[in-house]
Amino acid sequence: MANTAVAATSDPNDYKALVCFFFGGGNDSFNMLVPKGPAEYSEYATARSNQALPQNSILPLNGSHNGKTLGLHPGMPELQALYNANPSRLAFVCNVGTLVEPTNLAAYESGAVALPSGLFSHADQIMQWQTSVPNQNTGLGWGGRVADLLSPTNVGSNISMNISLSGTNTFQSGVNSISYEIEPEGNGSITLAPYAGGEDPTLAALGSSAINSLMDAQYSNLFQKAFAQKHRASLDASIEFSSAIGAQSLNTVFSPNRISQSFHMIAKTIAARQLLHMKRQTFFIFFGGFDHHDELLNSHAAMLPVISKAMFEFDSAMTELGINDKVTTFTASDFARTLSSNGKGTDHAWGSNQMALGGAVNGGRIYGAYPELALGNSLDTGRGRLIPTLSTDQYFAELARWFGVPDADLGAVFPNLNRFHNIGSGAPIGFMAPTS
Amino acid sequence: MRLNALLSWAGAAIRQRSREFKAPTRKLKRAHSEFQMSNRAIPASAIHYAPCEYPSFLDTERVDRIQLKPRPKRPRSFSNRSLKWTLAILSIGTESLFSQGFDLDGDGLGDLWSAYYEASNLSPNNDDDGDGATNLEEEVAGTDPFDPLSVFKAELQRVGSNWRILWIASPGKGYRVETTSSLVNWAADGPAIEDANGQTFIEFDGSGTQIFARVNVSDRDQDGDGLTAWEEAGFFLSDTDPNSNGNPGIGDYSSVLASMNSSEGYVFNGKFFPGGQSPHEPLSLAESARFLQQATMGADFEMIQSVSASGIPAWIDAQIALPATSHVQRNNDLHVTVIDEENGEDFAYSDYIWTWWDVNLTAPDVLRQRVAFALSEILVVGQTTDTLEDNYWGIATYYDLLVNGAFGNYRDILYNITTNPAMGHYLSHVKNRPTDLQNNIFPDENYAREIMQLFSIGLWELNLDGSRKKDVNGNDIPTYDNSNITEFARVFTGLTYNPENPNNGTPWDSEEPGSIASIDDYLGADSAWMGIEMAQYEPMHETGPKNLLYGQSTDGTLKQDLDAAIDNLFNHPNVGPFIGRLLIQRLVKSNPSPGYVARVASAFNSNASGARGDMKAVIRAILLDPEARNATFLNDPGHGKLREPVIRHLNLMRAFNFSSSDGRFRDTHNDAVEAYAQRPMRAPSVFNFYLPDHQPIGELKNNGLYAPEFQITTATTTIKTLNYWANAIPYEDFINPTDDAPIPTFTMDYSDELALADDIESLIDRLDILLTRGQMTTAARATIGDALVSAQNAETSPEDLVRFAITLIASSPDFAILR
Q1: Which residues of A214-253 are buried (b: 16+ CB within 10 A; e: fewer)?
Q2: Which of A82, A268, A376, B98 is most solvent-facing, going by the fewest CB within 10 Å?
Q3: Do residues B43 and B121 both lie within one domain?
């Protein structure tokens, strides 16, 4: 991969961050971005039957999209306000999903196209929404592949540019890039505590020294080696990281739940970017529990407000830091869910609706084509499992270009992208402001 | 053939053996190079090769100068005494890590070879008969370790213008002639020589450029059944058919294992071995400890000694014979005794997890409980919903299905989990209703998908060895498509909670159960729904034919459809390799070879009586497999697994006789499981805490290795775990007392270790057995030893010293990684 993207600069204002907000389990995003106008609502209500939201509960979004009026789930008033603001920093991207190549119903049914492996399966689709390579099992995420290119930008940094609030993940795994996992509490990272036993500090000093030696030792067994290396890296990073975070505080108030607090920790990490020598960073938050085969309506009513508030609070914090045009949050999920009901909820489907938020987002608009929702339409593979009309490649390449990956490297980061987008012809979708 | 070689028998097979372990094979070969160089080489001036094949070797120096170190003289019988040099005779081949075949005592020498030569208590690296070959080399060559005349050697004879290399072949061993012109790089020359028996020779044209030749002997296991060809030959079995013992469906390894442990005795290589005399010797304590870390939640010294004495097969038999410890019963016991002294009522605050810890700390059926936990990480139900969090009798009932299933039949497991209300709630097929086209409502696909993807057959058609089958284009073959899911979804309709009051409406009107927070709730009729299988309500079961896999279909009552669907999945050939691999990963190693998976899958497909799905046979196959037992695998850098944090936690407690003042362990261990990010029975999703195919970035991934448990090994869990132990071990503080339930006093018993506190080497030796199964690496031992000496010099008390030692070892990679 040509390393054309590396442009180390001493400009203290040179900074960009991408935040991946992943809804695990398959968010029913046709109950998140919902038809509001009469004709389109009627189509929606028929397909969704007892899982349809009441029309009058849907929060209206300004403007229309392909002649349709769309709205938001009633639990998301903060995002409604962000979308309807002028200028707006929130955009929706419609019916995006994992695709190996452009796919229509006839080709899907005849087997004439290559399909993502493990379509409709959680584990596979969660993986592929992070790799964007649904026809291979590389285990490398697109954030990791981008980090392989861009991490030399972070001159002087001892900590991975990929920071996870949700443990190990594929998105941030590259050939040479791993995630640094932190937690929402305290200073984010955990430092080694002294050995607590014994009457005097002798054992504490001996213990710390011995544990460091154990992790420095050479092991021939690869499991032992990996285990020691993980400890080594974690011990090294924890002191620097927690010290940098400890120096930060924000006025923006975040809700007490884990998701908002994770965004709070990201905001503090961004605030500490110069202490940590970071010019490019990715962040990862996994919000699980969206597999709503049952209790869809009740569960959504509890969970979507968490998303709305957290994204709103984070947006406020970025404004407080004066860095909103340098930070973009985007959502992802295994898949959307069947338009038709199973009586109690909905089942696994395919194309879904996502959001991008940040000062560099051309907000207040809906990108892609919000699909027809009538069962049996030309995208319906059965029960309202819709074939995506945008690939994850297009969605992510738009973000990667903004982040600093030049067109010359896009094909290497997204090996299937050229099947959907003429690389070099500009933005794949257009929801990000042009980069200078 | 460019080499003018004449083989002394007809139809010698030429086979290319598949190599399952490339890296370790290279390593072992390196380990033997010194031995090879100490042998002698022929003066190759007598051997002719076409000039283009080898660089000419102009210097005719006498190669006996090359001898590197003195070795005992070997008996020779040269037919041509004018030769001063014999061949470089022997090199031990290591075509695979199975070079010792059957090694249940883990002493690094094959048990059958040891038995045949009555060679007990030998060290692989000694040379008891002083014939120049170590005991290991004698074992590989199939020779007698006590007879200096019985040693692998070759002779050189002049036959006309040819040179003849002559040796005595043992049945089943593989031989290969290797040549070199440089004495540095030896290369196989000519075909592998297999199926040879007795006097064997190969001839070279004697005119031409000088080269050196030697003969390499190695063990082989061509059918991958875990027995070497030499062992198979001794039982008149075939090394090209893993099921050649005449009992359909029974693997040769299982069959040999059964005869070796039978009371009738057996014949090997024409020698009779009476019944009841297991050919393997007592296990070393280290091997016993290693086995017990695979088969249990942790062992104390007494248990390690006991298995060392009894041997593994006998211990497994005894474990299987023990009655199952019921989690429901233990739940009752634990909660009945927790009575609020003031109000005489049960405590509202309690948890199923009390029971999980209590059973896993105290129950005698340790193997069964270990397997049940493994199953709980494959057939996942988590207390992650409000309903299951509150209804811990429900989760205990589910767990008992796994406890009973551990030594039961997998078909029953599949049926029982399908009809269990906790699973019905967790994967939402409780109250799943039939198709209602008018309202665009279709049966819930959740359970239909996961029972196939996770609980039985997986996503891809598999071969017996777990590798994926390929279509004509070389692509993986899906086991099902979404239309199969929708059809199975129609089967799983009509199951419902049992009603609170059978006289009040239909079962379909039964309500989501409320909290079951006390024994009275549990025993009362109100909550009977959790303790028995779901009610089958026919009116809400979808009628009409439902397509199953393999062209089968079912069109019956709910019960008939359930049975048909479960049978359909249970009999799918994927189940053995799919579930077998997952169980191996949980118990023994993260990356079983294809042969290991195939042997376990064969046991799944057919036990000794030909029955399918017998978990006892599967567990025996997993734990007795050469890949689990043979010491050779310890050197494979890809062998082993990261032990789960909760199992390391239990290991630490169980090793030192953790006890409580009233014999019970009512505790959540919340601080510990929070640090570990692993809360038993609370996996974040049906995909468990980690995926079986997780690959951490770095050397593991670069070597194509899976390491599931690394998925929860993060920058925070690693250090939190160290910090937890740095506090819990010195203060024996493994518990989280709660305000509203009386917690007994818990103590650890370090008395045996305290007795060794003055002798740091002995203390480390003991802890090495207890915690690191005798595998503590040299560097770790030095680090820990130095720290303890310094602590001792600082006048640390014996109690503190012992606890400090345990903390350091618990923090080490040696403790975490089970090899």
Answers
A1: bbebebebbbbbbbbbbbbbbbebbebbbebbeebebebe
A2: A376
A3: yes
Partner-chain contact A222 B637, CB within 8 Å:
yes
**Is residue B156 one of the residues assigned to a domain?**
yes
Q: Is the pLDDT assigned to residue A3 strictly greater than 60?
A: no
Note the pLDDT tens digit of each residue in B318-328.
Answer: 999 999 999 99
Q: Do A238 and B719 touch (CB under 8 A)?
A: yes
Q: For residue B472, which amino acid is it?
A: V
Provide CB contacts within 8 A for B431, sequence distance 6+.
A343, A344, B495, B496, B497, B508, B540
Shortest distance between the Cα of B666 and any Cα of chain A, in A, equals: 25
* B811 and chain A in contact, CB less than 8 A: yes
Token digits of residue B738 = 């709660």
Phi-psi region of A66 (alpha: psi -120 to 50; beta: other; left: phi over 0): left
Range of the structural domain that residue B54 is part of: 22-218
Phi, psi of B423 (to 5 degrees): -65, -40
Q: Which of A134-138, A390-394, B762-766 has the lowest mean pLDDT?
A: A134-138
Which of B442, B449, B705 has its CB closest to that of A340? B442
Q: B393 pLDDT band (50/70/90 cuts)?
A: confident
Decide if B440 and A224 are in contact by the 8 Å CB cutoff: no
Residue percentage of chain B with pLDDT more than 70: 80
Position with higher pLDDT, B562 vs B108: B562
pLDDT, residue B349, reads 52
Quick check: is A436 in a domain?
no
How many residues are recorded in chain A? 436
Domain assignment present for B790? yes
Q: Are residues B199 and B115 in the same domain?
A: yes
Residues in chain B closer than 8 A to A217 (CB atoms): 777, 779-780, 783, 813
Average pLDDT over residues A146-168: 92
- Quote ipTM for the complex: 0.92
| Range of lowest pLDDT (B214-223, B392-401, B598-607) | B214-223
Confirm or reject contact between A11 and chain B (CB < 8 A): no
A interface test, pick of B378, B384, B386, B428 with most A CB neighbours within 10 Å: B428
The mean pLDDT value for B658-667 works out to 78
Domain that holds residue A154: 16-194+235-419
Question: A224 CB near a chain B CB, below 8 Å?
Answer: yes
**In this structure, what CATH number is given to the domain that contains residue A322?**
3.40.720
